[in-house]
Amino acid sequence: MKDCYLGVDIGSISTKGVIIDDDNNIITSAYIWTEGNPVEAVRKLLDILKLNLPKEYVVKGIGTTGSARKLIGLMLKANIVKNEITAHAIGTLTFYPNVRTILEIGGQDSKIILIKNGIITNYAMNTLCAAGTGSFLSSQAKRLGINAEEFGDYALKSKNPVKIAARCTVFAESDLVHKAQVGYAKEDIIAGLCKSVVLNYLNNVGKGKKITPPIIFQGGVSKNKGVVKYFKEILKEDIIVDENSHLMGAIGIAVLARRNKTGNTYSLEMKNVTFSTKAFECHRCPNTCELLKIYRNDKLVDSWGSKCGKY
Measured at the alpha carbon of residue 142, what is the angle toward residues 160 and 172, in degrees to the nearest 5? Predict the structure, then answer.
């Protein structure tokens, strides 16, 4: 039997899974929508990965990252749980050891990671607003009546991108509607949106950061050719987009699962596993904490939210 390691990146919009071997080669991977239910999304993800995993492999480590990393870490009995900054950096450094800047735009968040000599020196994430992220672009694509996958191709056709105020999704949408009603060409509006995403990112997430090459662009939005084009134009630098750029967080946490293996064997079979949560408010003290109890097969495995430590 051969050893392999699973990395799961659970985001607000999408859930990614990657299985690697001892040499960090990707054996199989999957990318699906979270749809507001990370537990069920991971069940679906595991079913896909199991179908494509050769029988000679046995899982010797599981890592989780992303916004629901703690919850899914309990569900899968993961041997390591880490934040997205660490996972993306490790995944990138595994294949690009000389990287200095990581630009990442996902479904509802974006981040920048600065690296020197293989060590994270600085990072930043966007605020609660999702302006300029993948969900923002998807909603605008739907408004314009085109497929999100075609968005970048339309942008490349433009000779005169219009200016779109993308610092706020509300203003951006009203600006987009106005430009369309005035009569601007669809490709010019789309190119304007792609350019505004880049400017918004650099003026928000990248503000005050020294962006040094080699520069790698990651996340689902990195597949948008229009956004890549304007990053290159505005930064006046080459931008590397790996074929697995949308999976880099999952790859990174899989690498960490391999490095921190415990010798245990892990199952990807979750059909007979019940996983549930129960929320309640504690009134034993003035804190009135909102608590969440986590159950695996009706057994309490953890609880979150207690400020006094009673739970």
Answer: 55
Q: Is 310 inside any structural domain?
A: no
Structural domain includes residue 265: no
Range of the domain at 38: 2-90+250-259
pLDDT tens-place string over residues 50-95: 999 999 999 999 999 998 899 899 889 999 999 999 999 999 999 9
pLDDT, greater one: 3 or 148: 3
Q: For residues 120 and 206, state if they share a domain.
A: yes
Crossing angle of helices 84-95 and 248-259, in 10° steps, is 90
Q: Do 225 and 289 belong together in one domain? A: no
Counted domains in the chain: 3
My answer on whether 7 and 77 are in the same domain is yes
Q: What is the pLDDT of residue 276?
A: 81
To the question of pTM greater than 0.85 for the whole model, the response is: yes
Which tops the pLDDT comparison, 131 or 164?
Answer: 164
Tell me whether residue 78 is in a domain. Answer: yes
